[in-house]
Amino acid sequence: MLARIRRTAPRLDRPTSVTALDSTAFYGSPGELVNAIAPHTEADPAALLLDFLTCFGSAVGPGPHVRVGGATHRARLFVVIVGATSRARKGQSRSEIRPIFEAADPCWSSTRVVGGLASGEGLIAAVRDDDDDPERSVCDKRLLVIEEEFSRVLKAAGREGSTLSEIVRQAFDRDTLSILTRRDPLTARGAHISIIAHVTAEELRHRLNDLEVANGFANRFIIARVQRSRLLPHGATTSLANSLCSQVRHALDAARRIGEVKRSPAADLVWEMIYEALETRDDDGLVGAVTARSSAHVLRLSLVYALTDGSRTIEPEHVIAAYEVWRYADASVRALWPTSIGNHLADRIVEIVTAAGEDGRTRTELSAGLGRHATKSEIDEAVRLLADRRLVVEVPQLSSGGRSAVRYFLCETSESAKEPCLPSLDSLLSHRDGQPL
Question: What pLDDT score was predicted for residue 240?
């Protein structure tokens, strides 16, 4: 099964990166579309793929869904495209995917795609219901939010009294959004909100240093690190939108006629292996917090892949493609925070000691680097956490006056202490006791 999918999956001409997206993620029509666009743009194919999948899931609407126990998952995705620098062309994927959907679904593109996550109230208002004045109600509950300054959103989400984090979490988890702690309560039923956000790696690291934000907000997002795929000094022109929009339009029309989607028996076997791999991980710190909803993301991605095929069932190839997208996101998070343990003070100490190199840093120098705002007990706890994770080592030394002192160094074993990435599908399949898929 996996070998057959890999033979038919598009192979993309892109440079090697820290997080390489496996070719099986480029399954079906999404892969064909990305493969057609990729030679004509500097955008990362991974960004093109995630932008397309998110747009497709948003434009399809709230009809297609998967039930898991008492929860209902629809084809709405929250994605953060992270550029290593401002030159990573993280936003160029929008320029390539937008024209395709403008032609495939002009109404959705012109009225249901908005910019900016300014507030929780604003998000609800865009899809609100008004029982007292039905004319003020929004009939089309689809909404794709494009946020080009995700660092600003993270700052707002962590601010005391902000409703943004609460409403974004509601929008991911359920169909009804509400704010009742105001004179004019806002409610939206049947909301179908998707988000595409952009940010640089530096901004994301700076802002996402609070476990409360990571647990309550950031883990609703698929975080993907991207880079410029090629250099096109004279640009490139393509008329692919006209040739591809018809295919996308027909796929959307077919998908909207689908209600509940279930996995086929063969897909269930693949899902069971993947689910175990996802749910038995025990990551701590920011990595664990940001990747905590892995199975929900894979489930929704597999649903979107199935819908692009017009399929009423999720098949093994849909689950496999979804898992590879998540493996890419998981590896992106680990590359962004290779030594993070979720304690802001400890993470800052790692940065200070790393910058010091072979010279290390004394306790006084650590305190100065921390702005002298941290107490002795707080620094002691942070150093203990780092020592337990084999990230920083404490070395006693004699000062020039004969007094004993302590200097802190980055552990030589810190690389081996990192949590491994998720296993590949090849690895999972090889441990199925020889059972055929």
Answer: 59
